């Protein structure tokens, strides 16, 4: 396999790191939301916000890397329609990786509860406190996450299809081995 | 007829005690606290204030403020509801908090210090707060900050007494807009 058929090692590392972080942050968010108010909930909400902002920071690095290093070519066997679906799916994932943390940050600002990264650095409020808008941003945050869940399931299903049905070696693009 | 006579009489009797009207639409009782290092603010929407304060004679001034603890408002409805519960303000059993001044001193440069007794959740403590007074036309705006140890008043009991989550210090920010007769 030629090196050009693989993502840059940093891109591969970020892909794996963000996959773990996003699954954890998603599950964590769902769990925290279900809890009654308690000191533990306050702490967990803070951790969830930190993780979300970390995703936002990492995806920005990832987009810069993608712009600088590009992406390896898709297998020649893929149809034009399949390529279109692949590109659209990846674009949707990038958009959601930005939009979801941003909607959470906006919600925090609207509630008047700023994000203080690691309890040390207070991030600026994106908008002024707005008690009417805050729950609506919460609904948006939730809806975008549902979309993310579907997009990630599609992403994994597509990867498995390439690996086990098409057997086109596509997954090696995102692997450090081989 | 009797009632009509009594009301002005009551007003006359009350007048010497508190010379100023408090414009409650412009006055506010807000507070800020920190949870996990995150600043959060809230306020009490309902309170009554009887204040008599003349910047030229601050030592004769007095203030009596009653706060409806159930009127507490925090950033989320869930937090507001929690704050009314037993562990926090216990608004059902202690619907009112009250501050009665004992002395007001001039600190110079338009700054003053008010001392008094704060009764909150059945606990009375001596507290003291600096404030400024700004005159504009017929109104006198009093702005100050009263630092409170929430645990001294048993605000946040049980698991909430852990200051690692919600800090002990709460700054009560008061703004009273007094209208001179």
UniProtKB/TrEMBL annotation, chain A:
The chain crosses the membrane at residues 12-32, 44-65, 91-123, 143-164. It comes from the Bacteria. It is a multi-pass membrane protein. Pfam families: Ni_hydr_CYTB (PF01292). This is Cytochrome b. Residues 6-174 form the Cytochrome b561 bacterial/Ni-hydrogenase domain. Keywords: Cell membrane, Electron transport, Heme, Iron, Membrane, Metal-binding, Transmembrane, Transmembrane helix, Transport. It comes from Vogesella aquatica. Signal peptide: none annotated. SUPFAM superfamilies: Transmembrane di-heme cytochromes (SSF81342). InterPro entries: Cyt_b561_bac/Ni-Hgenase (IPR011577), Cytochrome_b561_oxidase (IPR052168), Di-haem_cyt_TM (IPR016174). Belongs to the cytochrome b561 family.
TrEMBL record, chain B:
Gene3D superfamilies: Lipid/polyisoprenoid-binding, YceI-like. Keywords: Signal. SMART domains: YceI. Residues 1-19 form the signal peptide. Coiled coil: none annotated. Residues 19-179 form the Lipid/polyisoprenoid-binding YceI-like domain. This is YceI family protein. It comes from Vogesella aquatica.
């Amino acid at each position: 396999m030629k090196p050009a058929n693989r993502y840059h090692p940093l891109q591969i590392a970020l892909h794996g790191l963000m996959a773990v972080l996003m699954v954890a942050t998603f599950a964590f968010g769902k769990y925290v939301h279900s809890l009654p108010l308690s000191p533990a909930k306050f702490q967990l909400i803070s951790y969830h916000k930190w993780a979300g902002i970390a995703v936002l920071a990492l995806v920005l690095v990832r987009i810069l890397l993608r712009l600088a290093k590009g992406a390896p070519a898709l297998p020649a066997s893929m149809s034009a329609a399949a390529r279109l679906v692949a590109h659209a799916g990846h674009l949707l994932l990038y958009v959601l990786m930005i939009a979801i943390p941003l909607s959470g940050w906006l919600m925090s600002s609207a509630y008047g509860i700023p994000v203080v990264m690691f309890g040390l650095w207070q991030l600026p409020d994106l908008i002024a406190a707005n008690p009417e808008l805050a729950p609506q941003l919460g609904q948006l945050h939730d809806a975008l996450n549902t979309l993310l869940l579907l997009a990630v399931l599609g992403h994994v299903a597509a990867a498995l299809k390439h690996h086990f049905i098409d057997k086109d070696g596509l997954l090696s693009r995102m692997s450090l081995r081989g | 007829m009797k009632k009509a006579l009594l009301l002005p009489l009551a007003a006359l009797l009350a007048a010497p005690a508190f010379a100023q009207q408090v414009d409650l639409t412009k006055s506010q009782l807000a507070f800020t606290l920190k949870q996990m290092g995150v600043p959060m603010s809230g306020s009490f929407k309902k309170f009554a204030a009887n204040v008599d304060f003349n910047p030229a004679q601050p030592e004769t001034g007095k203030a009596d403020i009653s706060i409806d603890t159930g009127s507490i408002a925090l950033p989320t409805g869930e937090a507001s509801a929690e704050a009314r519960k037993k562990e926090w303000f216990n608004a059902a059993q202690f619907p009112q908090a009250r501050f009665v001044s004992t002395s007001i001193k001039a600190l110079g440069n338009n700054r003053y210090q008010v001392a008094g007794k704060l009764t909150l959740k059945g606990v009375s403590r001596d507290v003291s707060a600096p404030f400024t007074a700004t005159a504009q036309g017929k109104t006198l705006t009093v702005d100050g900050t009263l630092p409170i140890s929430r645990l001294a008043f048993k605000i946040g009991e049980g698991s909430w007494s852990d200051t690692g989550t919600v800090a002990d210090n709460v700054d009560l920010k008061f703004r009273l807009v007094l209208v001179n007769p």
